[in-house]
Specification:
Blueprint (H helix, E strand, L loop, with lengths): L13 E4 L3 E4 L6 H8 L2 H6 L8 H19 L3 E6 L5 E8 L7 E7 L8 H15 L6 E5 L4 H9 L4 E6 L5 E5 L1
Parallel strand pairs: 5-6
Antiparallel strand pairs: 1-2, 2-3, 3-4, 4-5, 6-8, 7-8
Helix pairs in contact: 1-3
């Protein structure tokens, strides 16, 4: 169920645009897409089960996560949309995480849209946005040690391995900067 979105909705704030994509703030209307993304095999394997199994839980996840982050920090994870088709294909953005001193870049895509360069396009643009618009001096990325695809993308956008970290959740992750 690769969601099509009504892109003309006036409450959607476009943040970034690349050659093939644009990134926009999420709204509660994006709950069905988030429900799908949060339950993909790669999300469950490398990021973890967030306990989101209904539209209502997805709406709460958005309210307590991205929507709260936009209000508190002025940034968050953004939906990645293919300009040509309007397909919602994933998310990419910045987050202030408990247990990390720096702002973290993260991304996740539906399986049908991996391996097509969308992750690189979205993550590269997000790093430029972090540096030039948000004026962040340092951005990090955390990743599950077994997530080779994400590690490869993190390196491709110019980040280098620094150390292993343990978040308050107890997860051991690799930190790149």
């Amino acid at each position: 169920m690769e969601g099509l979105s009504n892109l003309s909705s006036s409450n959607m704030k476009k943040i970034l645009e690349t050659e093939r994509l644009f990134l926009r703030e999420m709204t509660l209307a994006d709950a069905p897409f988030m429900l799908e993304l949060l339950n993909t095999p790669s999300w469950l394997a490398y990021i973890g089960d967030r306990g989101v199994y209904t539209i209502e839980q997805a709406e709460r996840y958005l309210q307590e996560g991205n929507l709260k982050s936009y209000a508190e920090h002025g940034f968050g994870f953004y939906l990645v949309v293919v300009k040509e088709t309007g397909h919602l294909i994933g998310m990419c953005g910045l987050v202030k995480r408990e247990g990390l001193d720096d702002i973290d870049i993260g991304f996740a895509f539906l399986p049908a849209f991996t391996g097509k360069g969308y992750g690189y396009e979205a993550a590269s643009a997000t790093l430029v946005y972090a540096k030039n618009t948000l004026k962040l001096a340092r951005v990090v990325a955390i990743v599950h040690p077994d997530n080779e695809a994400s590690i490869s993308l993190i390196k491709k956008i110019g980040m280098v391995y620094e150390k292993q970290v343990v978040l308050p959740t107890g997860k051991e992750l690799l930190l790149f900067a």
